[in-house]
């Protein structure tokens, strides 16, 4: 028997394109003598389509494409993911007026379909509770940017409705392969992440149920987004499934999406990572490369091969790949095919320089235009650096001085006199005017002129602290580095120079030492909106704080204060004691004031993030709809207040063990 895993680049909301790809891959599989071909979860319409899943017309349209797959299943078995709109449950069960989904609409299942020889496949043990050839998903993720529980009815809910043991509904499908009966169990994505789903202390394990009911092979179809370490985490989950089933475990086939989808506020990448595991739960066949659409053909003999070792790229290398794919995705969103152009404000700083380099690698230098917009506050150093970056990348570049426009705006606005006091614009007002002229008046209008998008160049630390101006810095069509800390920006700049371009594209004058110190001849991060301005962040330390406070298992000010009291702050933040001292955080009063400033700034800046462009996800918690926030006032907890009092009585911070 030959099984093919169709690792496919799925275009969300474009079923016609997806079905064309699927039919092509089915024909390719047939030409290679494949008996069973499996496609990923929601391969017809995509996975992340938001409240389109509440649109019955949309769901009905997706289901109509099933007929083309069924016809193509002659002389082959096709396994694929699609929505199932269950309007015939009463007819199947014989119970009239059976209640709908939990939201009052028709029941919808995130399901896997199995067709063979032009018809739905039969189960080992049939049931009127489920449609023929359809297996709904049981474990519906409802965390991060996943919303399955919002849209879909679970197989577990069906079991409860009819007082049927869940294991009875996990029956393998009986396939005729070369005149022989083969029992293949199918499940959907989260159904393999069972270790964290428990009832009365026992894992809800669809894989084990399928094996106990006679499955000789298990195929899991997935839409599992990339995160660093995901392959290793998945391998561990398969080992858990093996331990649960013991010697009964069977070869396990995992097929995943490639490409990019979005939820409106986040751009989410799918790197593939499709894998075949042997009966010992060890990987024996891997997909060739991240984000590569490919047909992985597996023969029976491949299941007896020696386990293979994964070769994982570094964290920054994987994040680079995700950023490139995310930027490319903009052409799919806008239907521009390969004609998506970008405008970027090149300030001469590290952030815009890195974004410009990413754009060039994503879409080509001929589709990128850099614009420098100096005022009297912009130094010759930064103007020279901006021009140097543009020249290094080979992109079109313009310098558009805006000082005169700023002065005209100032004159007009100072004519407004509401209170009779003749109030002048403040320094902050003038700073924001410069940013708004750059973003709204210049970049957005150039983008409109050329049918392009302009980028938001803010990093995650700026996004968190609100160090940006609405309708100025906070604007654009995409925020490529909005999920990277400043320290990651420095690392990415070095990676771009050393590994991607193999020359100095990002000027070394922008890169600090390991403690984020800059020499006098270098350019320190600055908005350059007033005289001698330097960014107020404690780079390195604030980055580490933010990563802890936005981790999937996030930490709070109380946790950080406890670490301080215990002397374990640097070890828990994975920074050096020298970094703590570099920013005077070893002084208790400085530590508390700074921590409260960070926490308050983050909470008070929610309104800006709500209006920010979509961010490419590169961490376990990105701002957007990955981390969903309400606009609330900042207030410390009683525990925070208690710990604060204790810390302020300390003379100095005493680390338990000096971290280097």
Report Rg.
28 Å
Q: Can you tell me the CATH superfamily of the largest domain?
A: Carbon-nitrogen hydrolase
What is the SS-derived class?
alpha/beta
The termini sit apart by 55 Å
The number of helices is 22
Shape: globular
What is the CATH C-level name of the largest domain?
A: Alpha Beta
In percent terms, what proportion of residues is strand?
15-25%
Low-pLDDT residue spans: none
The overall strand count is 23
State the helical fraction: 25-40%
Largest sheet: 7 strands, mixed
CATH architecture of the largest domain: 4-Layer Sandwich
CATH topology of the largest domain: Nitrilase/N-carbamoyl-D-aminoacid amidohydrolase
Written overview of the protein:
The protein is an alpha/beta fold. The chain has three domains: 2-311, Carbon-nitrogen hydrolase (Nitrilase/N-carbamoyl-D-aminoacid amidohydrolase, 4-Layer Sandwich); 313-535, Rossmann fold, CATH 3.40.50; 538-660, no CATH class. 36% of the residues lie in helices and 16% in strands. It contains 22 helices and 23 strands. The strands form five sheets. Strands 1, 2, 3, 4, 5, 7 and 18 form a seven-stranded mixed sheet that branches. The radius of gyration is 28 Å and the shape is globular. The two termini are 55 Å apart.
């Amino acid at each position: 028997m030959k099984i093919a895993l169709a690792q496919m680049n799925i275009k969300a909301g474009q079923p016609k394109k997806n079905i064309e790809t699927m039919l092509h891959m089915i024909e390719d599989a047939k030409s290679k003598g494949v008996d069973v071909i499996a496609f990923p979860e929601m391969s017809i319409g995509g996975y992340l389509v938001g409240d389109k899943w509440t649109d019955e017309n949309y769901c009905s349209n997706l289901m109509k494409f099933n007929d083309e797959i069924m016809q193509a299943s002659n002389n082959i078995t096709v396994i694929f993911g699609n929505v199932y709109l269950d309007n015939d449950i009463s007819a199947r069960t014989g119970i009239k007026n059976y209640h709908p989904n939990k939201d009052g609409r028709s029941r919808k299942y995130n399901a896997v379909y199995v067709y063979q020889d032009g018809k739905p496949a039969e189960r080992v043990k049939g049931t009127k509770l489920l449609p023929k050839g359809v297996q709904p998903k049981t474990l519906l993720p409802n965390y991060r940017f996943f919303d399955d529980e919002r849209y879909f009815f679970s197989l577990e809910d069906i079991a409860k409705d009819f007082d049927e043991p869940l294991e009875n509904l996990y029956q393998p499908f009986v396939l005729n392969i070369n005149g022989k009966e083969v029992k293949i169990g199918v499940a959907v994505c989260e159904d393999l992440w069972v270790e964290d789903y428990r009832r009365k202390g026992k894992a809800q394990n669809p894989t084990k149920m399928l094996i106990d009911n006679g499955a000789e092979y298990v195929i899991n179809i997935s839409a599992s987004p990339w995160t660093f370490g995901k392959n290793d985490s998945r391998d561990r989950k398969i080992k858990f499934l093996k331990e649960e089933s013991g010697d009964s475990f069977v070869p396990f086939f995992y097929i995943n999406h490639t490409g990019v989808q979005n939820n409106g506020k986040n751009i989410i990448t799918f790197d593939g990572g499709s894998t075949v595991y042997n009966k010992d739960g060890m990987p024996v066949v891997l997909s060739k490369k991240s984000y590569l659409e490919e047909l992985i053909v597996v023969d029976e003999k491949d299941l007896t091969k020696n386990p293979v070792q994964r070769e994982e790229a570094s964290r920054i290398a994987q994040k680079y790949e995700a950023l490139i794919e995310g930027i490319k995705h903009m052409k799919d969103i806008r239907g521009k095919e390969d004609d998506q152009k970008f405008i970027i404000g090149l300030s001469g700083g590290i952030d815009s320089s890195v974004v410009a380099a990413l754009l060039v690698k994503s879409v080509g230098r001929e589709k990128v235009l850099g614009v420098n917009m100096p005022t009297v506050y912009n130094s010759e150093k930064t103007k020279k650096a901006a021009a140097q970056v543009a020249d290094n990348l080979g992109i079109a570049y313009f310098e558009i001085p805006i000082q005169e426009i700023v002065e005209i705006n100032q004159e007009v606005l100072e004519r407004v006199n509401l209170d009779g006091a003749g109030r002048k614009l403040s320094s902050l007002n003038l700073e924001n005017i410069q940013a708004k002229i750059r973003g709204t008046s210049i970049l957005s209008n150039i983008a409109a002129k050329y049918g392009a998008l302009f980028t938001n160049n803010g990093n995650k630390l700026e996004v968190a602290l609100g160090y940006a101006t609405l309708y100025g810095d906070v604007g654009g069509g995409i925020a490529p580095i909005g999920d990277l800390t400043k320290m990651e920006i420095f690392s990415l700049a070095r990676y771009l120079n050393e590994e991607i371009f193999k020359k100095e594209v990002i000027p070394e004058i922008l890169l600090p030492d390991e403690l984020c110190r800059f020499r006098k001849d270098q350019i320190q991060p600055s908005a350059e909106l007033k005289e001698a301005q330097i960014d107020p962040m404690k780079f390195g330390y604030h980055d580490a704080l933010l990563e802890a406070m936005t981790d999937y298992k996030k930490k709070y000010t109380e946790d950080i204060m406890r670490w301080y009291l215990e002397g374990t702050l640097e070890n828990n933040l994975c920074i050096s004691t020298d970094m703590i001292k570099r920013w005077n955080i070893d002084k208790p009063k400085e530590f508390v004031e700074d921590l409260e400033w960070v926490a308050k700034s983050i909470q008070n800046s929610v309104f800006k993030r709500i209006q920010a462009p979509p961010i490419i996800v590169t961490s376990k918690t990105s701002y957007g709809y990955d981390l969903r926030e309400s606009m609330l006032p900042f207030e410390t907890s009683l525990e925070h207040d208690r710990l604060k009092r204790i810390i302020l009585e300390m003379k100095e911070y005493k680390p338990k063990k000096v971290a280097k």
